[in-house]
Amino acid sequence: MNNDGWVKTTCAYCGVGCGVEAKPKSNGLLDIRGDKAHPSNYGKLCTKGIALGDTVITDGRQLTPVLRRKVATQSTDQPLSWDEATNLVADKFRDTIEQYGPDSVAFYVSGQLLTEDYYVANKLMKGFIGSGNIDSNSRLCMASSVVGHKRAFGSDTVPIVYEDLELAELVVITGSNLAWCHPVLFQRLKVAKQNNPSLTIVVIDPRRTATCELADLHLPIQPGSDVSLFNGLLHYLSESGKLDQHYIDHFTEGFDSALSLAAEQKDTLSETGLSQQQLDDFYALFANNDKTITIYSQGVNQSSSGSDKVNSILNCHLATARIGKPGMGPFSVTGQPNAMGGREVGALANTLAAHMEFGNKRQHTLIEEFWGTDNLATKPGLKAIDLFDAMEEGKIKAIWVMATNPMVSLPNSDKIRSALEKCPFVVVSDCIKNTETAKLADVVLPAQGWSEKSGTVTNSERRISRQRRILPSPGMAKPDWWIVSQVAQKMGYEEAFQYLHEGQIFNEYARMTTLDNEDGKQRDLCLIGMTKLDDKGYSALTPQQWPVDTLQSDLSHRRLFSDGRFYTDSTKAQFIATKYQPPLLTPCEQTPILLNSGRTRDQWHTMSRTGLSPQLGTHTPEPYVSVHPATAEQVGLEQGAIAQISRNTTSIQMRVHIDSGIEPGQAFVPIHWNGATASNAKACSLISAYTDPLSGQPEFKQTPVSISPWSKRSEALVISHHPINFDGIDYWVQQKLEAGYLYRLASKSGAMKLIIQLTEKLASEGNKTLTYSADENGSLHRKAFMTSAGIQSAFVVKDCIDDDDLDWLAQLYQARLDETIELQFMSADA
Ligand SMILES: Nc1nc2c(c(=O)[nH]1)N[C@H]1C(S)=C(S)[C@@H](COP(=O)(O)OP(=O)(O)OC[C@H]3O[C@@H](n4cnc5c(=O)[nH]c(N)nc54)[C@H](O)[C@@H]3O)O[C@H]1N2
Ligand SMILES: Nc1nc2c(c(=O)[nH]1)N[C@H]1C(S)=C(S)[C@@H](COP(=O)(O)OP(=O)(O)OC[C@H]3O[C@@H](n4cnc5c(=O)[nH]c(N)nc54)[C@H](O)[C@@H]3O)O[C@H]1N2
Ligand code: SF4
Ligand SMILES: [Mo]
Q1: Protein residue closest via CA to atom 12 of ligand 1
Q2: Which GO terms of the molecular function aspect are on file (predicted)?
């Protein structure tokens, strides 16, 4: 802590990993500012980072462990002590393992966990339970990049440092909406371009996104065609004499077969849907700029050919020796705050810990000795999609979900529901009470959240930073590492899980990275310089970029592969021959529109934290589907109407947003809204679980759907001090306000029915109501529910709501109760 009460920590959100300073306020919230000394952001923050202080409210938190019993559609919660809860979980897991074997249980974890949490969960499952069945939501996020890196480099390594963005002459951004998803990197790029007007930026994305603001060239490629584009580039580089033959000969293998497959490709134009001019422009830029960075994210990873997309990019960088040098390199920007940390400690089903691998006998023995176990898993476990499939088939009998919400974020939501319902024992550790997944749990365990928990995270440039405890935890919430360790001890593994604080876990992990690797020659993930950290050192730890041979006191920038040495058996980088494959599903007559899904600027995933900030709610208050004007006209959609998006027998509803930045025949929806914040607006309800065969990452970005108008007959706005359950109303969306919640509703029934429904839902809100009805048909109806303390809730029902209604409602809510308010209504009923 500084003298003036500011505590240094790291942002809760994206993989940029910005340093944050936070200071408690007298109202229990936090003042927030960027940490100027943090080398990843130098004091800058984006809208989400700035709003962190608003999100530490305790609304909706899970406060105690509970046993949740579901009877029909109702569930009742029985509070448990921590001792009872951890005994119960340990007993159930142990009994299940005894009866059905270790592969009948599983953990599904998350890049929202800290490295210490992740490490302990992986140690318990792989090291002591003896199963590989621990997988992470990173499977949905970074798995294709992991495969791509390992195939090319022999290690899961991001070679660049952020500083390279400022040193580059060409930045290619493909499948990444950097402006919204990694805003501080985008800001750094913006400043770099101001300082160096010759810096050229190319954006490759089927949509024209906010990131295109900086683009000198935007290539709206055909969805899924990245391999074709980059194969074409490899061939072009060869034809135009731009290969670095010396580098290819000395530091790589497999070039000839990669080039010959790329050269065989004849249909680059039709596959990518680009013009010859667009291709020529991009290829010439790439060929003529040595200092090139290629940034890529989910438009690349989340694909049935995600691994090949990644390698087709890496091939072009290897062929031009643009790796490991200032201003050059491929850059897989990570999604979550600690996606990287999870990959490091091995919380994906197909790796061991500390970048050690299944199938390597020596490493297997080293880990068994280090952990003092004879039960280390010998084979990879089930990847996320396969895991939930196995659960649905009854093969997984106990699952523990930590810090992720698979009911919202995994494809095929109906199947996920059915899998969780069939699983005999479901444990969910979360901060929030009523996530869609927690509703299906047998036991819910209250976890500490950001600002309460303490440990480390690793960002997209391999920089390890501390998240620090600033506020007390509400209720009985505990750190995830503590919860897992308690269960592990009660399962009989007392000795291996005796941690008193997170620093001890970090120390163990740091030592593990040095096994057979004190000089970092076997594995680049080597933290030998951190193994001597004592409690004080851990507590005061400043950001460290791995590999860490000695503790870094300066702002170090450590690029990898500068010496042309890789972690493959031959120490040479590998070219991978890639061939374009279209997305697995193609539009047809019933489902003619290709649905893309992704993020909005101010919401984070399932909105459990960002949804609490009134400020963040204003950017995009309602879920929307973007379509091109021509598509809108074709299917009869108007701006601001509600659309129904359907596939097979499932439909969702979202507001229509007409956008000429999206191609005709395509649509885009945000991933954030779900049962906690909207009636029926979950993208994953429509998306099938088609995956990349190597990475297991789902094809989230290309799903054929049909879109049609959703005809409503009436609409309403409701404002209330606390959340209201609108089950039974056809369409609703919740938005957090300073003093409560705003709901936008719509109904297939006429206004009268909606008025009756709302009056019933809100009846308990006040003992006095004020009513205004414009005419007998009820085409405008306003009602407020009051107590002596003032207006508790109010609604407007109309055939078609407009902005005036919203203004009126907002004013009413904020106004003091006096005669002028009463005069706005026609009658008052006590
Ligand atoms: N505001 C905000 N920021 C976030 C997050 C958040 O929830 N909200 N989440 C974080 C996480 S976990 C992640 S993983 C990252 C994700 O960050 P991004 O990957 O940047 O975000 P997305 O919106 O999922 O998708 C990126 C882009 O890929 C494009 N795309 C779709 N198909 C293709 C294709 O075939 N080829 C190409 N080249 N592009 C395609 C989409 O149109 C979209 O604009 O964001 C992180 N940052
Ligand atoms: N259609 C579609 N689906 C997608 C994607 C897409 O682009 N399109 N993107 C995918 C990607 S890249 C990702 S990363 C996933 C994200 O999907 P999820 O992981 O499901 O999303 P989150 O909302 O981040 O879920 C985190 C949960 O953990 C809780 N939590 C936060 N901190 C802690 C903690 O410290 N401990 C515990 N125990 N709980 C905590 C939060 O309250 C929240 O409920 O979605 C994937 N799904
Ligand atoms: S860029 Fe990412 S890490 Fe930085 S403040 Fe924004 S959300 Fe947080
Ligand atoms: Mo992600």
Answers
A1: 335
A2: 4 iron, 4 sulfur cluster binding; metal ion binding; molybdopterin cofactor binding; oxidoreductase activity
